[in-house]
Amino acid sequence: MRIALSRLGLTALLLSIVIAALAGCQQAIEPGNPSLPVGFSETPILDVDLNGYIYVKQREPLRLSSNYFVAGADTSSPFAGVRLPPQVNLDRITVVQGPSIGSFGATIEFSSGSDADATARVIEQYDLWTTWSDRTLTLITGTDEWAQSVRDAVEQDRRATLQESYPEIWEVIRLLPENPPAPPVAAGFLRVEKSTLEALATKANIGLGNASQAMGVARFNDIAFAVYAERPLQIPEEIDESFLRESGVGAVWVARSGYPSFVVSIVLNVLGGRIGLTETSIDDTGVRYMTIQDLHLYIANQGNIIYGALAPDKAQAEALMLSALGK
Fold first, then answer.
1. 247-278: per-residue pLDDT in tens?
2. What's the CA gap between 83 and 76, in Å, rounded?
3. Is 77 exposed, middle or buried (CB count within 10 Å of its CB: 0-12, 13-18, 19+)?
4. What Cα–Cα distance (Å) separates residue 290 from each residue in 141, 168, 278, 308?
5. Which residues pair with 250 in a beta bridge?
6. Between the ranges 200-204, 260-264, 320-324, where is the mean pLDDT highest?
7. Are 219 and 292 contained in the same domain?
8. pTM of the model
9. Whether residue 254 sits in one domain with residue 195
10. How many CA atoms lie within 13 A of 273 on its CB side?
11. Domain shared by 185 and 58, yes or no
């Protein structure tokens, strides 16, 4: 099965995470009640050690190209005796990330039994650990110790809410916007480690140089993020800038440094100058700005809390940044 990652999206995510350390000092925002995708807070996650978690759900089914399940095959042609529709409808997707970029698991809830049955027969052709329950597929890659722990958790149904499993990360998630300019369609967290960041950069074929050291310098480890969309998502085979623009997709993330505010400001202002963020303002609020492959990135911090907003439209990125800062 082909798990496709847009180079554009991955590059933007990597670079914007690395430079999220770059702003002046203001009063920190207290955790609140962020706007999150339907069911995010209540949905239990597997009771295993995670480096990342993504939850995707919108108010109507998510339409996903079935080519994500068929490696290079034309979905109009039979594959292993099965004919998939061009798109399948999904109610929810959750992804858990292990210690390396090749270690992950996913739970996919299909909207219809027919889509689930057809996909099940295709998935059987791949060397993956899978289990089905009604219209829900769980799959796990890898054979290492982490993959085995995930399989054990699935079989034993060991689960807890994110708040119960990762209370410190939950407090960072609570710093996400309460009133974003568009409905949330995805949210989650990423534990940033230098080795993981450099592995992702290698996969995206980009050179970070010494930039990955910014994570360690600022003690900037756990990132919470949310994705917002002005219109219901239909995920094509290729995720590119035109898809992002047409869907009105944008993202906000937030992280808390382990250092006091004044140390964060000194360290991160120096790093910001080296990467090329320019100082500007949005509605008299001081921020930093740059473009990444035609995407607009704003960075700001309040105390030792760092915020980022990324969108294909500059006005949308500004609106996301202001919502993150509680404006």
1. 789 999 999 887 777 776 666 676 666 777 78
2. 7
3. exposed
4. 36, 30, 7, 11
5. 228
6. 320-324
7. yes
8. 0.82
9. yes
10. 6
11. no
